[in-house]
Amino acid sequence: MSEELRVLLVEDSEEDSLLLIRELRRGGYKLAHMRVETAESMRRALQDCEWDVVLSDYRMPSFDAPGALQVLHESGQDIPFIIVSGKIGEDLAVAAMKSGASDYLMKGNLARLVPVMERELREAEERRTHRLTQEAVRRGKAEWESVFDSVSDLIIITDADGVVSRCNGRVKAYFPGGYGAIIGRRIDEIFFGSEQPEGKLFRFLHSVQSEADEDIRFPNLSGWYNVASYPMRTEGSDRPNLVFIIKDITKRREVEEEKRTSDRELLTLYAVAFRLQYTKGVDKVMGDLLFQLHNMLQMDFSCIHLFDHDRLRMRASLGLSPSFEKAMKTLSKETQWTTLAQAGRPFLGEEPDARFPARAKKAAIEMELHSWCTVPLKIGQEVMGVMTVGTLSGRSYSDRDVFLLCSIAGQLAVLIDNYSLYDKMKEKADELYRSKMELKENLQKVKRANIELGRLNTAKNNFIGIASHELKTPITSIMGGVEFLLKYSGIQMTPEQHNIFVSVYEGTVQLRKLVEDLLSISRIEAQGPLAQKKPASLVRLCREVHDLFALPLSERHIKVEISGEDLLVPVDEAFAMLAVRNLLENAIKFTPDGGCVRLSGRVLKQAQLKEMTLTLRSFYPSFPNNIAATGKYYLLQVCDNGIGIPADERTRVFEKFYGVGDIDHHSSGATAFMSKGSGLGLSIVRGIMDAHEGAVWVEEAEGGGSVFSLLFPME
Q: Where does the signal sequence lie (predicted)?
């Protein structure tokens, strides 16, 4: 059957009110409820109806929980007041509780609502019952009895002779007989039995307020207690009664003991960690660690074993008898001790047993070993060894002791592993130092070789420059003489003589071209990057180069088309003209008679250039790092419809002295112009474009032939 409940809701949110109502109904209550949002409406509700409980939000637009508490207090009604808030700080909640709130809970934890409601309703009913009871007796006496019995300490009142006349309800928690067990008996006898030790509590009368200086234990009770006594004077009596307040401090003593134990453990761990910072070698550190354990944990003997392959070898010890140390010095893999150590778990005992090797067990008994504990030294699952400690007294090792020893052993294992790594690192460092010295020596050799190569390169360039200049004069004389004999001398020659002079002339032309190419390469390598560039029209340069080839173009009926954006581009004009000349010469050479060569120029933006990354990286793997970073570039292209270049040779054509195919496979070999070149022309073009911080590459033209592209930065 549902219990009727009248609830006054101090809430501005109808939805939250419905949630509270639903939760209470789910708890089995039949509700009568009203929701108010202001102080005035709450006053009217308290005046008009009787309520079992008030549920209030903490903060509302025009009202809050402290204000609602004030209204409730003004009404004089004793109704449970419970705060139900979505968010309330602990300080606000405490302040509300101090102001009279019964409890508080969060809207997100309404599961507490029904239990809290039941408790508060129960307590409210108890309060109402208590008030009705107090109407039959004096209010002051009832209040005193309530306070007296609710105190958590044991309060005993005796007369001047120590006979118990009264006590609080706490006596039931300590004496099964309750009041009857102590009323009328002497307090000395109750707590100490028939004989109280001389000088103990209750043996004297108290004239002033006093408290025991130290904690005490009573034979007839378990735990620790603190006793304070106060004189209590009553009307009509010359001798004061005594009030004893006996406080149970067992939990406090347990906490203090726990704190002392924890402090000892922390101090031990700190001391161990400090010792483990030494850099005097692992054996020295292990010895220091054992010494520290003896001081901090009252050990009588200890030792550390490390695995050496399958054996356990003792590396440090303290307090062992010579016979025991000798017996435990080296343990083979067949011993039970080694098997237990390999398992990586602690093992311990109260006396030497079968787990000890036979000789070690005998030696342990002789040195009166009692309790002992062995913990593993391991990192992860790798067991490096074990640490064993023991005492000659009756002390036993608890789980807490084992845990502490395992923690210390873990730190020691890390240190041992670090020392091992340090030794390895030291070996590697020595090896690295030797490699560094060898590298330094090799770098010196390379440096000397580079200096020698630089000197040889300078000598080579000087030789090429001098030789080329010296060769140009005789070559010019030879060409002029042969050309005069062939064209202007009028000398009658046999066909054989004429062919000989033609061959001499063509060979001299090739020699002159080779000398010019060598001079160009020497200039490019000597000059390096072009610091002095001037704006020039590349379209105009193309037309000037075209005029140089007017005769061979007319002989072979090759058409040349020049188009594009006529803009000023910063270039070295002489080098730019040489690059265009070499490309146009190659285009004419590899284009069939009656063919067409097209020269065109246009501006490329940086975004357009990025679209060509895949093509350019086959020629420049570091693209775009090899070219100048700028917003715009000028692209000059020379396109022919000749024999083309195989895909696997396109990147190699820019190497020095590399030629594509055989002259017999060229478009025509009928004129002197078509003779095979030196293989330096495209290498020169590559050098010119590198000096301009630009690029050159070749692709296949539509319909056959090749397209050579020159990329010039415009800024």
A: none
* Tokens found for residue 345: 């778990």
Please give the angle made by the CA atoms of 634, 637 and 638, to the nearest 5 degrees.
155
User: What is the spatial order of strands in the sheet that 81-85 belongs to?
Assistant: 29-36, 3-10, 53-56, 81-85, 103-106
Instruction: Return the minimum-mean-pLDDT range out of 9-13, 173-177, 370-374, 687-691.
Output: 173-177
Bridge partners, residue 597, by sequence: 560, 640
Residue 638 has pLDDT above 90, yes or no: yes
Q: Is 688 exposed, middle or buried (0-12, 13-18, 19+ CB in 10 A)?
A: buried
Per-residue confidence (pLDDT) for residue 280, from 0 to 100: 60
CATH fold of 259-419 reads Beta-Lactamase (3.30.450)
pTM: 0.37
Burial class (CB in 10 A: 0-12, 13-18, 19+), 449: exposed
DSSP type of residue 112: G
Helix (H, G, I), strand (E, B), or coil: what is residue 317?
strand
Hey, what amino acid is at 562?
Answer: I
Matching CATH number, 528-713, of 3.40.50.720, 2.30.40.10, 3.40.720.10, 3.30.565.10: 3.30.565.10
Mean pLDDT value across residues 569-584: 88
Residue 663: predicted pLDDT: 44
Question: Coil, helix or strand for 299?
Answer: coil
| Residue 202 confidence (pLDDT) above 70 | no
Measuring CA to CA, which residue among 183, 151, 186, 157 is closest to residue 169? 151
pLDDT surpasses 70 at 212: no
Share of the chain above pLDDT 90, in %: 10
DSSP assignments along 245-260, one per residue:
EEEE-HHHHHHHHHHH
Q: Evaluate whether 151-255 and 259-419 have a shared fold.
A: yes
Residues 6+ apart with CB under 8 A from 602: 564, 565, 634, 635
Instruction: Identify the CA nearest to 162 among candidates 187, 134, 127, 198.
Output: 187
- What rounded mean pLDDT belongs to the chain? 80
Q: Where are the domains of the chain?
A: 4-128, 151-255, 259-419, 528-713
**Type of residue numbered 387:** M
- The number of residues making up the chain comes to 715
State both tokens at 534. 């001037």
When the candidates are 3.20.20.70, 1.20.1080.10, 3.40.50.2300, 3.40.50.620, the CATH number that belongs to 4-128 is 3.40.50.2300
Helices 139-150 and 113-134: crossing angle, nearest 10°? 140
Q: Which two structure tokens, joined as six digits, stand for 393?
A: 């007294």
In the predicted structure, residue 545 carries a pLDDT above the cut 70: yes
Homologous superfamily of 151-255: PAS domain (3.30.450.20)
Query: Number of helices (H) and strands (E), helices first, in the chain?
Result: 21, 23
Residue 226 confidence class, pLDDT cut points 50, 70, 90: confident
pLDDT of residue 138: 59
Query: Mean pLDDT, to the nearest integer, of 174-190?
Result: 82
